[in-house]
Design a protein that fits this description.
Elements (H helix, E strand, L loop, with lengths): L1 E3 L6 E6 L3 H14 L3 E6 L2 H8 L8 E4 L6 H5 L4 E6 L10 E4 L4 H16 L26 H14 L5 E2 L20 H9 L5 H8 L1 E2 L6 E2 L7
Helix pairs in contact: 6-7
Amino acid sequence: MRETGGQGVSINIVLGDLDEFFLDRFSNYLNEKSNTFNVGVFTSKDSLHNYVNDKNNTIDILILTTSFIDESITKRNIPVIGIWSESSQNAIDGFTSFNKFQKASNLVESILMTYAEKTGCFESVVKGHKSVKIICIYSPVGGCGKTTLSIALSSAFIQNGANVFYLNWEKLNSTIGIIPHAPHGSLSEVFLALKTKGANVGLKILANRYQDPSSRIFFINALSVW
């Protein structure tokens, strides 16, 4: 077992896998790109179980290969217990599946989203930014250039180093003619959360947002009909 981490650590994550090369690369990524995690890495099943069974060790997230699973793992009150998967066929009831063969940034976001959903710790996913600005563009007239102006402003802000989250609330909109349809996500999911008592709308927005790799604009697929 190896422990790594730095200042600003708030989430204790334990990773277990026989693939030492993968664990090295992923744990290094966590340490270099994020100060969110305190990382523990295990390539031995016995060592991992000894660590998990020690109640003095705080574990917020445990992700391990299927060969490391046994009954003692489920006895600990760990918010997120997941398994490494290589496809949807690796899903196991009672465990969250994390595909290890994807971009590291996407994997981290998936882990954080799952943790936020399980614990309600919204701050673990998004840190507040005091400099956030909201710009609204409105006109009752169709085809007057609202979408074109919105996307142009978004692109200009991005070129100046800002992050942009674009939302189109029109019943009929031409967004898809400028930025492509996202492969996942829909405003209908957000609206459903708004109408559902106890739903975390912020998390639902994050789960449905997508960043266009070309324009770098964050957005959610607009509805064609409300």
